[in-house]
Amino acid sequence: MSFSTSPSPVIGVFDSGLGGLTVVKALACRAPGIPLVYFGDTARFPYGTKSAETIVRYSKENTAFLLKQGAEIIVVACNTASAVALNHLQAAFSVPVYGVIDPAAQKAVEMTKTGRIGVIGTRRTIKSKSYTKAIIGLLPEAQVTAVACPLLVSLIEEGCPSQEAQRLLLREYLRPMKRDCIDTLLLGCTHYPLMEEMIQEEMGADVSIVDPAKTCAALIAPTIPAEKGAASDYRFFASDDASRFKAIGEAFLGMKMGKVLTVSV
Fold first, then answer.
1. Are 190 and 79 in contact (CB under 8 A)?
2. What is the β-pairing status of strands 143-148 and 184-188?
C-alpha cells in the first residue's frame, strides 16, 4: 500500500481502459503537482457492452482498490460507468466521487447557439440517456441527437493502420449529426478526444466540440490545493498487460508514465 506525503488530496481515477488518461492529462494541465493514482481495468474492457449490474460491480471494486491506494477523491473517468454507476458509488463510499457527465452537459448547454446538440458514446452510455437527461434538465428546449458508436473505443485502443477506414466509420456514425444540423457535439467517451481532430474535420469548423475530460478537470481542479512547483506524483495500475498499457498510455498522455503495475481487483 502506498500513500502520498503531499498535503493535497490524492486523486483516484479509473476507467475501463486507457481512455481515462485523457482526464489525467487534463488534470495535470490544470493542477500540476497533484498526487494521483490511476487504474485501467484492461482485463474487463470494454464496459460499454456490459450489463448495468456488472458495470456497478466493477465500479465498486475499482473504487475500493483506489481507496486502498490512498485515494481521497474518486474520478469516474469512464462515461459508461458515470452513466450507470455514479449514484451507486456516491451512496456506497464516503469520499467525494465525481463523474464526467454533468460537467460535460453543462458545457454543451453553454456552448450551443441553436439548442441542437449531438452526443456520441458507447451503447450503454447512449442507452442510459444520461447525457440527454442532463442536457434537457439544463435546457428543456434542446434537441439532442444521441448516437452509439460501438466500434470507436476498440479502434482507438487497438489502433487501425488505415486512416481512411477510421474516417469512413466515423463518417457513418456522424451522419445523423449532420442531418439534424447540430452546432455542438459532445464526445460522450473519454477515448474520443484521441480522434477529436478527425471528428472536427468531419463536422466542420462551425460545430463546437465538448471534451468530457477537460470539463471534468475544470470542475475538480479548483477544489484541489495542489503544491505549486511540486513534482507530479502519479502511479498507474492496470488489470492486464501492463507493458502494453504503458506503451499506448504514454502516447495518450504525451509523457512518460514510469512503472505500470498489473493488479487484480
1. yes
2. unpaired
223, 237 contact by CB (below 8 A): no
Return the closest-CA partner of residue 12 out of 106, 107, 93.
93
Q: What is the mean pLDDT of residues 183-197?
A: 93
List of residues 6+ apart from 254 with CB closer than 8 A: 25
For residue 135, tell me if it sits in a domain: yes
* Residue listed under C-alpha cell 498522455: 253
**Closest by alpha carbon to 110, among 184, 202, 180?**
184
Q: What is the distance between the alpha carbons of residues 191 and 23, in angstroms, rounded to a whole number?
A: 10
C-beta of residue 188 within 8 angstroms of C-beta of residue 120: yes
Domains of the chain: total: 2
Q: Which of 149, 181, 189, 216 is catalytic?
A: 189
Grade residue 229 by pLDDT with cuts at 50, 70 and 90. Answer: very low
User: Which triple of cell numbers denotes residue 65?
Assistant: 482498490
Domain range for 225 = 11-99+215-262
d(CA 194, CA 199): 10
pLDDT digits (tens, 9 = 90+) for 147-176: 999 888 888 777 665 778 889 999 999 999
Residues 6+ apart with CB under 8 A from 258: 234, 235, 236
Measured in whole angstroms, the distance separating CA 28 from the mean position of its chain's CA atoms is 15
Q: Is residue 1 part of a domain?
A: no
Query: Is-catalytic flag, 78?
Result: yes
Q: CA of 74: how far to CAs of 95, 100, 242, in Å?
A: 7, 11, 22
Which of helix, strand or coil describes residue 32? coil
Least confident of 67-76, 92-101, 136-145, 154-163: 154-163
Q: Are residues 207 and 129 in the same domain?
A: yes
Catalytic residue among 78, 149, 160, 216, which? 78
